[in-house]
Amino acid sequence: MALSSQHKKSLAKTAESRILPLAASAPLLSDNLFRWYADKGRHLAWRARWPELTPAYHVFLSELMLQQTVVATVVPYFLRFCKRWPDIHALARAPLDDVLIEWAGLGYYARARNLHKAAQLISSEYDGIFPDDYETLQTLPGIGPYTAGAIAAIAFDKPAIVIDGNIERVLMRLMGLKVQVAEVKSVLRTAYAQIIPTTNRSDFPQALMDIGASICLPKNPRCADCPLKAQCRADKDGMAADIPVKPVKIAKPVRTGAVYILTAPDGLVMMYRRPQRGLLGGMLSFPSAGWDKSALAAPQIEGLEDIVWQKSQRVIRHVFTHFTAEMSVYSAAAQPSFMPPEPYDWHRPIADDWPRLMAKCFLDISS
Ligand code: SF4
Predict the structure, then answer these.
(1) Domain with 301 in it: what CATH number?
(2) How many domains does the chain have?
(3) Are residues 27 and 151 both part of a single domain?
(4) Catalytic residue among 16, 52, 63, 168
(5) Distance CA 50, CA 237 (A)
(6) What's the pLDDT tens digit per position in 217-266?
(7) Which residue of 15, 168, 199, 367 lies most exposed, with the fewest beta carbons within 10 A?
(8) How far, in Å, CA of 252 to CA of 245, rounded?
(9) Ligand 1 centroid vs 108 CA: distance in angstroms?
């Protein structure tokens, strides 16, 4: 719902009036935060502790993986990437297909393509040395204001603004702002800039993230255990759990479609590699239709018209960022003499290497 201009003005006034007390308590807040972090902060595979700094390559890898994905899922991927491509030059030299295969299961494949493109640029244009300033970092593919801030602060100890979902919640509660996050984004940036400590800027956002992940929880904040309790307006006002106000949920549109799985006598399955740009770009896919305008139903593909397909009883549901796909799955066995038409080919049925939607459809006909 659109806010009236009067409401916006009064909200801005309240929000701004809360920055000053927070800024005034910043030295104490940092002291309490760092004391807690030294004892209770998470030890994650990519993290170093100040005064040691995390290599920029590790911050870059982990932050791109963490966009839309939880820490526990990212850790094994991060370790595998570092083992296979120990530095930015190695990642830049890797074929994109290998990077996409190693990324499979993390979803949001545009991140993997951007990771690879950014690695190639840093390797060729910057001699493998990451830029350390916020503006230049944002010129690289896949690096927006948040990731640029994270690299600048965590890898280079710069006074950069780093605000993820956890930090947003912690800041809003510290200031007692009982509104939706979207209404105070710019206020949070101003507030963050005011409380960045003069030393140990690298641990600061990581410690705040950990407070958000383990103490200042979305539903049941553990205020009694919180090292920032003395500086927290929401706790004083008894409204911690009501902040931030949740936006009204809008249901995602549903797209229905069909996936066609043709199996050869030796167990291989017919797939093609999707175009690099667009949904599931560069990933292997079965012929499909309906859910994605660029896909083509198998019976419409020359050479596949005569195949008799069996429809599975179940409908496979998969949630993408902007829509939910509901797919009917059709399967058939190919004759030994059948040759897949271009751009299709036989592939080993390794569901782990595929986009989740395709893996779910394959598992449906295999079970
Ligand atoms: S006191 Fe409670 S609401 Fe405030 S920062 Fe700590 S956990 Fe969050």
Answers:
(1) 3.90.79.10
(2) 2
(3) yes
(4) 63
(5) 34
(6) 999 999 999 999 999 999 999 999 999 999 888 888 999 989 999 999 99
(7) 367
(8) 20
(9) 32
Active site residue 63: yes
Q: What does the CA dihedral 346, 98, 110, 281 come to, rounded to 10 degrees?
A: -20
Write out pLDDT tens, residues 76-107.
Answer: 999 999 999 999 999 999 999 899 889 988 87
**For position 3, what pLDDT does the model report?**
61
Closest ligand 1 atom to 170 CA: 5
Q: What is the pLDDT of residues 149-208, one digit of tens each?
A: 999 999 999 999 999 999 999 999 999 999 999 999 999 999 999 999 999 999 999 999
* Shared-domain flag, residues 259 and 227: no
Ligand 1 pocket check: which of 40, 226, 233 to mutate, most ligand atoms within 8 Å of Cβ?
226
Domain contains 23: yes
Cis before 287 (ω within 30): no
Shared-domain flag, residues 199 and 295: no
Q: Which of 193, 209, 242 is the last residue of a domain?
A: 242
Kind of pairing between the strands at 324-333 and 254-263: parallel
Question: Is there a single domain that holds both residue 309 and residue 225?
Answer: no
Q: Do residues 13 and 138 share a domain?
A: yes
Confidence of residue 122 (pLDDT cuts 50, 70, 90): very high
User: Ligand 1 centroid to 216 CA: how many Å?
Assistant: 5
Q: Is residue 248 part of a domain?
A: no
Q: What domain range includes position 342?
A: 254-366
- Ligand 1 neighbour 170 (Cβ under 6 A): yes
Q: Are residues 180 and 302 in the same domain?
A: no
CA 208 / ligand 1 centre spacing (Å) = 11
* Cβ atoms 25, 231 nearer than 8 A: yes
Q: DSSP class of residue 328?
A: E
Q: Are residues 74 and 158 in the same domain?
A: yes
235 CA to centre of ligand 1 in angstroms: 6
The ligand 1 atom at the shortest distance from the C-alpha of residue 240 is 3
Residue type, 51: P
Find out whether the beta carbon of 229 lies less than 6 Å from any atom of ligand 1.
yes
216 pocket-lining for ligand 1 (C-beta < 6 Å): yes
